[in-house]
Amino acid sequence: MIEKENFHIFNYIKKEEYTASMDGMRYMLKKKDGNGGTVLEVIIWPEPCCFAKTPEEKKSRKEFAFSPEGVMEAADWLNGQYRDQKEMWEQAKRRAAADG
Q: Cβ contacts of residue 1 below 8 Å, gap of 6+?
């Protein structure tokens, strides 16, 4: 799980995409400019593939305010997605280890 008290990545996201993984669940946080202004886009997908090699239908996306508070809301969402789909992430982790 993401420990919000240690998840201070907002300044990083201002310039670069942030990617990480959590026991079978890969995720990306990035700045996204659109018609409504700048937002924080969060994308999750199962291991083992990188973002570019994962089919779109296996990805889930959500947008948040582009702010430090938005990053904290994103962390809550990521933790919730991990809990809610834990079996899928565990299966992805096992497949990745078997493909090793």
A: 22, 79, 82
What's the distance, CA 7 to chain centroid? 13
Between CA 57 and CA 38 the distance in angstroms is 25
Q: pLDDT tens for residues 44-91?
A: 999 999 999 999 999 999 999 999 999 999 999 999 999 999 999 999
Angle (CA) 27 28 32, round 5°: 150
The CA–CA distances, whole Å, from 7 to 22, 49, 53, 67, 87 equal: 14, 24, 27, 13, 25
Please state, in angstroms and rounded to a whole number, the distance separating the CA atoms of residues 22 and 56: 20
Nearest 5°: phi and psi at 58?
Answer: -95, 0
> What global pTM score does this model have?
0.92
